[in-house]
Amino acid sequence: MARRATNNPRQIRSKSCGCALCLEEYPEPKRRPRRDCIGSWQARYRDPAGKQCARNFQKKAEAEDFLDEVRTSVRRRTYHDPKRGQIKLREWWEKWWEIRQKQGRVTTRNRILAVWRAHIEPKWGDYPLNSIETMDLQRWLTREVKGYDSQKKCKEILTALLRAAVLDGKRIPENPAAALTVTATRAQKHPDDLKPPTAAQYELIHAALPPYYQIILRDFANETGMRPGEYAGLRLHCFDEEEMIVHIKEIIVSDRGRLRRQAAPKTSAGFRTVPLTPRAAGAIAFMRKKWKPVRSRSPIGDGFDLHVEELIFRGPRGAVLNINNLSGRVWRAAIIQSGVAREVMDPETGRTDWWPELGLYRHDVTSRLHAHGVPEADAQAVLGHDRGGRVTWVYTHEREGAREHVRAALGGERGLRSVS
């Protein structure tokens, strides 16, 4: 082991000191002579990479304490360079996002980017990493970020972003976002705002749809329970006319407003085979006759080359079925025109949603399967869920007419069986 330097820490000569050594090095201007030097003490050390660093202190004891501490941290691999923590959060985001954007689904990446731009960057982008404190973050999260979901995503992104700074050569000694608490209350919706429309309400909505979209939504989506991105991305080679089934192998997603192909469904369970009713098969027959799709199987490539010639369901003019337009303009106009629409406001954020949503077709299909006694495992396989219990927990709702049956039973119109 190399011997330590005997002059570490060493005293730095000062222009304001009048000791003999300082006067010798800095003779001008003339100063009052003194016996003891008042210069600062410089502690020199090498970081884990072997680079020589230095720090000045007023007293020799402080410099020696610092040297003992920093040498121990280097040996134990807990050392962090304060200068590396002076990078601004915006600059650190660019380094982190360069790697993070290669992971996960497109929709997840876009959601992270939207939260960063809307909430985190405007407030914390110009802050150095080592100046961000836990209580400041918590105060901002509680006072300025509205809504449970927004607070939750801000906490998750900040925790991951600053944890990476801790792991990257100890830019900061600890993660100030690790102890953040989501203080907003999660908005609970009334059961009526979660369940799908009744059969009569769906008839009114379908009647208000343009005839072309009636074939897509009434005859296909309402018969299969497939997600909009799944039937928008359905290609002819995935349709088995003899077995009357379709195989879900890829989907269409929105990438910041631009449609692209995604090589996998929403979850791993999304890879599945869906049986078709005669009505759903009729919708495919209509589209095949109108658009004459080809049965080729093109590679996905960069995702934006959609190969419209293979798609079964398309927009009215033959382009890719725009899922943004479908769930926004087309569906919303139909539910408003039919008189079924209802505004549902989030009291925490003030944002307004519309009931019913296009995705409630899946809930309606699940409830119908449940009412007909289809086992959960079978419904799970058709709908594409990781576990069967979720089918009942999320998608199954009270049966149509359930309230009338309960009212009749409690009013004595129907005998109640006693249980001893």
Automatic annotation (TrEMBL):
The keyword DNA-binding applies. The keyword DNA-binding applies. It holds the Pfam family Phage_int_SAM_3. InterPro entries: DNA_brk_join_enz, Integrase-like_cat_sf, Integrase_catalytic, Integrase_recombinase_N, Integrase_SAM-like_N, Phage_Integrase. GO terms for biological process: DNA integration; DNA recombination. Residues 189-411 form the Tyr recombinase domain. PROSITE patterns: TYR_RECOMBINASE. It comes from the Bacteria. Keywords: DNA integration, DNA recombination, DNA-binding. GO terms for molecular function: DNA binding. Belongs to the 'phage' integrase family. PANTHER family: PROPHAGE INTEGRASE, PROPHAGE INTEGRASE INTS-RELATED. This is TraSA:integrase fusion protein.
